Amino acid sequence: MIIVKDKVFQLDTEHTTYLLRVDETNHVRTEYFGKKIKAAENYDFSKEKWSFPYGSSVVFDESHPELSLDNISLEYSTVGKGDFREPSILLKTQSGFTADFQYRDFEIKQGIETLHGLPTPHSGGETLVLHLEDSTSKVGLDLSYVVFSDSDVIIRNTTMINKSLDDIRINKLMSFQIDLLDQKFELVNLFGGWAAEAHQSAKALGPGIYINDSKTGASSNRHNPFFMLKAKDSGLNQGNVYAFNLIYSGNHYEMVEVNSYGKIRLQAGINPFCFEWRLKPQERFVSPWGVLSFSDRGTNGVAQHMHHFVNHHVVRGDWALKDRPILLNNWEATYFDFSENKLHDLLKRAKDFGIELFVLDDGWFGKRTDDTKGLGDWETNPKKLPHGLNRLAEFVNKAGLKFGLWFEPEMVNEDSELFRAHPEWAIKTPERMPSLGRHQLVLDLGLEEVQKYIIDALSKILDSAHIEYVKWDMNRHMSDFYSSRFDQGEFFHRYILGLYSVLETLTKKYPHILWESCSSGGNRNDLGILSYFQQNWASDDTDAFERLTIQSGTALAYPLSTIGAHVSASPSHQLLRRTPIDTRFNVASFGCLGYELDLKKLSPVDEEAVKEQIKFYKEHRHLMQYGSFYQLRTLEKDGYVSWMVLSEDRKEGLISYFQGLGKANPTIDILQGQDFIDDVLYHVYARHQETNIKTFGGLLNMALPVNLNEDGRIIDLISKHKTIEELLKKSFDENYDVYGDAINNGAIKLSPQWAGTGFNEYVRVLADFGSRLYYFKSK
Ligand code: GLA
Q1: Which of 438, 540, 574 best tests ligand 1's pocket when mutated (most atoms within 8 Å of CB)?
Q2: How confident is the model at residue 660 (pLDDT cuts 50, 70, 90)?
Q3: Alpha-carbon span 54 to 50, nearest angstrom
Q4: Ligand 1 centroid, distance to 473 Cα (angstroms)
Q5: Residue 697 has pLDDT above 90, yes or no
Q6: What pTM was estimated for this model as a whole?
Q7: What number of CA atoms fall less than 13 Å from residue 451's CA on the CB side?
Q8: 622: how many CB neighbours lie within 10 A of its CB?
Q9: What's the whole-number mean pLDDT along residues 546-553?
Q10: In what helix (H) or strand (E) does residue 452 lie, and over which residues does it extend?
């Protein structure tokens, strides 16, 4: 709801309020952003009051001698009028760099207008547009705000309109800026690299400027555009937390400045790095949408807002809000080394296990036998698939599974037919030898002919077989960037506009397809991409323990229904770490579950485990993908990780317990949830898991009638066929009847962990990297 009183605008979501004021000098101020407050008759209370400016200030004008822009909380800022903090707008007009945008009038519209060329969330409530102008340079500025009340999210962007007769240059136009009073916040952002995405960094903010950005050409695995400001006393479930994101997939920039007057300025938008946009008379430039949310229920509160927003207003297509299928991807099972027969073998297994979607990854096209060649040639390789893609898809469909395919459409290898025909489509600087990444070059998607090629080449394949899933990869950062057609400062943004145009066309043309984005894992996991693709491969790292960190970070910003998570072989190919098959599942089940290993190589014991996993996931899939997600315990603070999902009616939930390293004399573990209904009785039970006999090493001999070498062939053989529970003919799955208040207040105490002094069926053997899932259902 948007309420207007004099020149104060109150934007209300279900639980939050955002207040703006047009002040006496016609600048728009951030007045308040936080927990919901009642609409008032008079907003004098919230106005920042000044009698005199601080010493050595520049005063805006002599008729308001108390006002200096340097110390007012502003919704946007420029240079040259006395605000010496980071400007959110930097432009060059006939009057130089100085600019001063002043309020003219406003509009309130129902719904949200779709931005031309940029992804726009759908099903929005009301939109407020404030029209501003710099009267000297004749440049207009619109500040837009859309309220998504149900998600407790507000989105903002800015539009610049050149009403002058001359070209102007935009060097920086942030999607949003807000100025808050400094409350000793912590800045939390997601950083990383390949196979280690979305690690969290938290730093206490002191005076200075903090920048979180990407210069790789994509939103990047270096620094995701999502960030949070946490009040000092906030935690996972309590305290004030702000979260911000950007609906953009290219170079982005987020800035936090703490000044010496107790103010904190936040900005986010397209990265000014190598950016300069020429705006001709009458043209407009629209910045991507920025996303803002606040919760007084800690990081879980604000993450839940973001999840709701993404599920209900960002993700679209036939798969929006739909349960995702369990897939098998052949990549880690075969890499490039597959044949039709091998794929058939994998498929037969997949069917027996209850897998629902079979994905053929890299290597099916052109002369692609390794990663040095073939990218760009989107035609089936007859040597690998002599009967063609359609026959393979039919085979998959006959087995009752959907068929999915990998592409990397934005790239080209120099050793490809495409490159030989169109070397000019690859990004490179004239006269310089281009630097390669994974032996490949990037196609310039800023060029319409490249966009057309990609649309046509993919359409041809997608029309040639029954393909119901696409993995769209993008495996390198950009270098040697140069536009053969546009001003150089426009290169990066034009690439992204070109990409969006291709994605818009293809996803509209094939709405039945489930699209999964990938960029060497999570190198382009952002809300721009999720406006077209329903899920995102979070990381090439499928090691379960590393995934705890990656998925904990990713899930701050993105819902579980968008996070691709697979069970792969042990030791993991990325870290060579060994983790139990059930931990691999327990971690991957908090997302869109897949398997990425050769199911034929599983031992009978693991086969049984995987079949049980798939059965369990199918029963609880909706809860795992769309339930409210809570992070209850973290590795850093608690030494173990506990995640939870809760159904909308709060009558059903799942809590996980992921151990890091085992401990001597382990304490009694408590199973504690959050937000279960206090006076409802729940039945809770541990998902059935069994223990590999090799876990016990030489200790096994204490229970065996004969002494066997724990590294020998006999133990090896037994371990493939029997678990400890089977050998003992005893197993125990903890289960209790318990009221919601007992769950919420930590009254459930779990069976003891292995302590090195004895074993029976009640001992929980977690060892290093062990885990359990507990399912709760109201009785
Ligand atoms: C990237 C992806 C992987 C796989 C390979 C194929 O690394 O992230 O999942 O698809 O490409 O080359």
Answers
A1: 540
A2: very high
A3: 10
A4: 7
A5: yes
A6: 0.98
A7: 17
A8: 16
A9: 98
A10: helix 448-464
Cβ(406) – ligand 1 distance below 6 Å: yes
Cα 240 from Cα 749, distance rounded (Å): 31
The whole-number average pLDDT for the span 715-721 is 95
Q: How far is the CA of 361 from the centre of ligand 1 (A)?
A: 8
Q: Is the pLDDT at 183 greater than 90, yes or no?
A: no
* 473, 541, 582, 606: the active-site residue: 473
Closest CA to 633 of 644, 623, 625: 644
Residue whose CA is at the smallest distance from ligand 1 atom 6: 362
Return the HEC string of 710-768. Answer: CCCHHHHHHHHHCEHHHHHCCCCCCEEEEEHHHHHCCCEECCCECCCCCCCCCCECCCC
Report the DSSP pairing between strands 563-568 and 535-537.
parallel
Question: Is 540 annotated in the active site?
Answer: yes
Please give the structure tokens belonging to residue 206: 């002191």
Whether the predicted pLDDT of 702 surpasses 90: no
Section 533-553 average pLDDT: 98
Question: In this structure, are residues 210 and 227 in contact, taking their beta carbons and an 8 Å threshold?
Answer: no
Output the CA angle 543-546-549, nearest 5 degrees: 145
> Are 155 and 527 within 8 A, CB to CB?
no
Long-range contacts for 435-438 (Cβ within 8 Å, ≥24 apart)? 435/479, 435/480, 436/476, 437/475, 437/476, 437/477, 437/479, 438/371, 438/475, 438/476
Work out the end-to-end distance of the chain between its first and last CA atoms, rounded to an integer number of angstroms.
39
475 CB within 6 A, ligand 1: yes
| Cα of 553 from ligand 1 centre, angstroms | 21
Which is the catalytic residue, given 100, 362, 415, 540?
Answer: 540
Shortest CA distance to 545 belongs to which of 709, 771, 360?
A: 771
Distance between Cα 99 and ligand 1 center (Å)? 47
- Separation of alpha carbons 119 and 155, rounded Å: 12
Please enumerate in sequence order all residues whose Cβ is within 8 A of that of 430, keeping only pairs 6 or more positions apart, or say none: 482
> Ligand 1 test: best mutation among 406, 523, 536, 597, most atoms within 8 Å of CB?
406
pLDDT at 182 over 90: no
Gap between the Cα atoms of 199 and 212, Å rounded: 13
742 lines ligand 1 (CB under 6 A): no
Residue 361 Cβ < 6 Å to ligand 1: yes
| pLDDT for res 402 | 98
**Residue 391: predicted pLDDT:** 97
Overall average pLDDT of the 628-638 stretch: 96
- How confident is the model over 200-255, as pLDDT tens digits? 999 999 999 999 999 999 999 999 999 999 999 999 999 999 999 999 999 999 99
What are the backbone dihedrals phi and psi of residue 504, each rounded to the nearest 5 degrees, phi first? -60, -50
Which of 194, 359, 410, 475, when mutated, tests ligand 1's pocket best, judged by the most ligand atoms within 8 Å of its CB?
475
6 part of the active site: no
Do strands 628-633 and 592-596 pair parallel, antiparallel, or not at all (unpaired)? unpaired
Determine which residue's CA is closest to atom 11 belonging to ligand 1: 520
Range with the lowest mean pLDDT among 32-36, 410-414, 713-717?
713-717
pLDDT tens track for 118-142? 999 999 889 999 999 999 999 999 9
Q: Do residues 704 and 719 lie in contact, with contact meaning Cβ atoms separated by under 8 Å? A: no
3-state SS of 303-324 is HHHHHHHHHHHHCCCCCCCCCC
Protein residue closest via CA to atom 1 of ligand 1: 520
Note the pLDDT tens digit of each residue in 473-498.
Answer: 999 999 999 999 999 999 999 999 99
755: left (phi over 0), alpha (psi -120 to 50) or beta: alpha
What does the block give as tokens for 97? 């760099």
- Angle of helix 581-588 relative to helix 604-626, nearest 10 degrees, comes to 20
Q: Is 539 in the pocket of ligand 1 (CB under 6 A)?
A: no
Distance 573 CA to ligand 1 centre (A): 13
